[in-house]
Each structure stands twice: as structure tokens, then as C-alpha cells.
């Protein structure tokens, strides 16, 4: 497809009896190009053949990826509020922790109504930080984060959908007056092409994103761009949708499934491998929940596929080890973070109680010692002496011994 045939002219076709509305023509052209020219490969959702200027199918197809137009149409024109979504992906304010609810209450109602996120992307220890929000939409998370970073901090929102950005920009003065300072700015652009937005390398302490990475055809480019913009020790903290297996191509290219954050969802293990490949060693899962598909037609199409909303944290820390190694190290949380006086949650498996000596692996020790969390912890030990694999972190020594022979149930070593 996409080539012109220069043979003899065919018969003259009769004029169209009915003209399609422009929006229908655009969607048909996009679907045509997705199906015949841009079927994504199974690896990380990347496109083997980008649209070409020589393609005769129309000006829309000169875009780098037609999935962008599907997402723009779905979130900019079709959806009018979070009530229009067909899954339980969206988190409303009622699910927010108690400390966050007063901040959300100060945000303009129109901004809140156009929120389509699937998690909470307000990690602790943000005072004075520079934060970048990838896929900021109507600005709900940006305006919540603006209150957490304070007048000395900065929040930048990036989104490709002009209608959503218009909502965010329309209420900047409202939020400036409510907060008493203006520390927010927005950029129109693609989060796969962050290098085009004039953002300084190594500028940000924290990058967040809320249910947007799955909508990007080139997820590797998003992760590489985030890594480049983070300071050493900086954190990419984001919520997104993942699948329990690789999503088949026929579902990946369905416009509604893609817009609902299902078609573009990565298989969870592919995501972890991709993050490590890019340079984010040892991805940490903070929390997760299964998604319910509330539309019967969509559920019948999806079949036995299962989807999950999950929040991850990725640190820009070089040299993290592939597995959790034991160096006899420990930390003590001081209880000094206002959002977490009693317990600090590093991830789903590390709830660190204030005042208690908490043994950690080498990677966890470095994540706390080399990030913005360091002032809130006391650190015990170093990496001079190695004691083997850290028990309870998903890996175990594959060998048995005379004193303690290996049982099959003790070792889940796969096929190797």
C-alpha cells in the first residue's frame, strides 16, 4: 500500500451520493493507514514503517504515527469528562489519600472533570523540586504538584492534545491566585520527542506521568527521553496500564481500545525488560490494581486478556545490580516526611516503619542514599562485604547442600 499504479485509467466512478463529515473521513484515513501501512511490531509497540510523504492517502498520513491522531481525537473531542470512559482505569478524588484531598479541592472544577489518569503521581519529598509531567492533559496533576513543590519549585506539563492544554492554560490565573505564586508552565508537543521542546538535560528532580505512556507508539523513546532529562538520582514516578500477556495486533489497532489505554498496554515483563535496557535498573512496583472493563462489547473483544493499573518508580542511578544482593546494610527512616510520618513506602515490598532498623539490599540502599530521600534516613553499612543474594526478593541460590538439600518447591528456576 502507498504506491501509485501508473497503468491505463480505469472506468470513471460516479460521484459520492453522500459526503462524509470531515471527522469521519479523518478516522477512516487513519484506520486505513494503521491497518495497511503501520501495523506495529510485537516488540515494545514500535512501528516498523513510518508514514512517508510519498504516501497518496492524504495529508493526515504525513504524521509520524497515526495513533497520535486517534488519541488526540479521543481525548480532545470525543471524551467530555471522565464519566465517558469505558473501563475503571480512571481514579477519582475519593481514592486519594487524606493529605492530598485538600490540594485537589483547590483545583478548578473544569480541570478536575477532564482528568483521565489511572493512579496517583504525587510522590513524597517534593518541596522545592523541579517536576515534569508527561501527558499532563487538563492539568490536574500539574496543579496538585505545584502546591507540593511550592514557590521555590517548578512544574512543567507536556501534552500533544490542544483541547486539553487549552483547559489547563485557561485556568492558570485562577490557580496562581489560589496558590499565591505562579510556578507552572505548559508545552505543546509529543512526549516521544522531548528533545524538541527546549527542556534542559538533567534539569528535573522528578518526572511523573499518569496513564499516558501506554498511548505512545514508541515507548522506548519516552523512557530514553525521561532518563536524559532527570538529574542523577532523579526519579520517574508514573502510573500506567499493563497487560498479563502481549496484546494481539488486531486489538492494538482498535481505535477505541487504544484510546481506553488497553490496546497500547505493554505486557508487564516486556516493560521491565525495556526499562532495564534503556538504563533504569531495577524497576520498583509501588502499587497495582486490576481493571474492570465496564463496556460489554469491549470486554467481549478483549476476551481472556487481563489489564492492571500499576504505579512504578524508576531511578536514574547507574550500576544498579540485576538482582537484590545482600551486603549487610540497613536503613532507619526518621519519620520526617509530612506525607508519611509513620511509614515510608519505597515500593510494594518495602514499607519502612519510622525509627526501626530495616535491612535492605544493595539496590534499595542506593535508591534511598543517592536520591532526594537521603536526608530522611540514617544509613548503616556499606558494600565492602558481600553475603550473597538478599533473601525474600524473588531470587534464591539454585544449589542445594548436604545440610540443606534443594527441594523442587524451594527453587523456581524456570527452564534454565
TrEMBL record:
Coiled coil: none
Protein name as it appears in the record: Arsenite methyltransferase
Domain named Methyltransferase: residues: 128-278
Superkingdom of the organism of origin: Bacteria
Biological source species: Candidatus Accumulibacter adjunctus
Similarity-based family: Belongs to the methyltransferase superfamily. Arsenite methyltransferase family.
EC number: 2.1.1.137
CDD domains the record matches: AdoMet_MTases
InterPro entries tied to this protein: Arsenite_MeTrfase-like (IPR026669), Methyltranfer_dom (IPR025714), SAM-dependent_MTases_sf (IPR029063)
Enzyme's top EC category: transferase
Gene designation: ubiG_1
Keywords noted in UniProt: Methyltransferase, S-adenosyl-L-methionine, Transferase
Residue ranges with Pro residues bias: 8-20
Region described as Disordered: 1-21
Biological process, per Gene Ontology: methylation
One annotated GO molecular function: arsenite methyltransferase activity
Catalytic activity line of the entry: arsenic triglutathione + 2 [thioredoxin]-dithiol + 2 S-adenosyl-L-methionine + H2O = dimethylarsinous acid + 2 [thioredoxin]-disulfide + 3 glutathione + 2 S-adenosyl-L-homocysteine + 2 H(+); arsenic triglutathione + [thioredoxin]-dithiol + S-adenosyl-L-methionine + 2 H2O = methylarsonous acid + [thioredoxin]-disulfide + 3 glutathione + S-adenosyl-L-homocysteine + H(+); arsenic triglutathione + 3 [thioredoxin]-dithiol + 3 S-adenosyl-L-methionine = trimethylarsine + 3 [thioredoxin]-disulfide + 3 glutathione + 3 S-adenosyl-L-homocysteine + 3 H(+)
Amino acid at each position: 500500500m502507498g504506491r501509485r499504479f501508473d497503468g491505463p485509467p480505469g472506468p470513471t466512478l460516479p460521484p459520492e451520493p453522500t459526503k462524509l463529515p470531515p471527522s469521519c473521513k479523518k478516522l477512516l484515513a487513519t484506520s486505513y493507514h494503521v491497518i495497511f501501512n503501520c501495523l506495529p511490531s510485537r516488540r515494545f509497540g514500535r512501528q516498523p514503517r513510518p508514514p512517508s510523504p510519498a504516501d497518496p492517502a492524504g495529508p493526515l498520513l504525513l504524521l509520524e504515527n497515526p495513533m497520535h491522531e486517534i488519541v488526540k481525537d479521543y481525548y480532545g473531542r470525543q471524551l467530555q469528562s471522565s464519566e465517558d470512559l469505558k473501563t475503571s482505569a480512571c481514579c477519582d478524588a475519593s481514592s486519594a489519600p487524606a493529605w492530598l484531598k485538600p490540594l485537589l479541592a483547590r483545583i478548578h472544577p473544569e480541570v478536575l472533570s477532564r482528568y483521565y489518569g489511572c493512579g496517583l503521581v504525587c510522590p513524597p519529598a517534593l518541596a522545592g523540586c523541579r517536576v515534569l509531567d508527561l501527558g499532563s492533559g487538563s492539568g490536574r496533576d500539574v496543579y496538585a504538584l505545584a502546591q507540593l513543590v511550592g514557590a521555590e519549585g517548578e512544574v512543567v506539563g507536556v501534552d500533544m492534545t490542544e483541547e486539553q492544554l487549552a483547559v489547563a492554560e485557561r485556568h492558570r490565573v485562577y490557580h496562581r491566585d489560589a496558590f499565591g505564586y505562579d510556578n507552572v508552565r505548559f508545552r505543546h508537543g509529543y512526549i516521544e520527542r522531548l528533545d524538541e521542546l527546549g527542556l534542559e538535560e538533567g534539569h528535573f528532580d522528578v518526572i511523573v506521568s499518569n496513564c499516558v505512556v501506554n498511548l505512545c507508539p514508541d515507548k522506548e523513546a519516552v523512557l530514553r527521553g525521561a532518563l536524559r532529562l532527570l538529574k542523577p538520582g532523579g526519579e520517574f514516578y508514573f502510573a500506567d496500564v499493563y497487560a498479563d500477556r502481549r496484546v494481539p495486533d488486531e486489538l492494538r489497532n482498535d481505535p477505541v481500545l487504544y484510546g481506553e489505554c488497553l490496546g497500547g498496554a505493554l505486557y508487564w515483563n516486556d516493560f521491565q525488560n525495556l526499562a532495564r535496557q534503556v538504563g533504569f535498573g531495577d524497576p520498583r512496583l509501588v502499587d497495582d490494581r486490576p481493571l474492570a472493563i465496564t463496556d460489554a462489547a469491549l470486554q467481549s473483544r478483549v476476551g481472556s486478556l487481563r489489564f492492571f493499573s500499576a504505579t512504578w518508580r524508576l531511578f536514574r542511578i547507574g550500576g544498579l545490580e540485576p538482582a537484590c544482593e545482600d551486603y549487610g546494610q540497613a536503613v532507619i527512616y526518621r519519620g520526617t516526611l509530612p506525607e508519611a510520618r509513620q511509614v515510608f513506602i519505597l515500593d510494594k515490598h518495602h514499607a519502612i516503619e519510622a525509627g526501626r532498623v530495616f535491612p535492605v539490599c544493595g539496590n534499595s540502599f542506593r535508591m534511598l542514599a543517592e536520591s532526594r530521600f537521603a536526608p530522611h534516613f540514617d544509613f548503616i553499612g556499606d558494600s565492602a562485604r558481600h553475603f550473597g543474594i538478599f533473601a525474600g526478593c524473588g531470587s534464591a541460590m539454585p544449589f542445594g547442600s548436604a545440610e540443606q538439600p534443594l527441594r523442587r518447591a524451594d527453587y523456581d528456576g524456570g527452564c534454565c
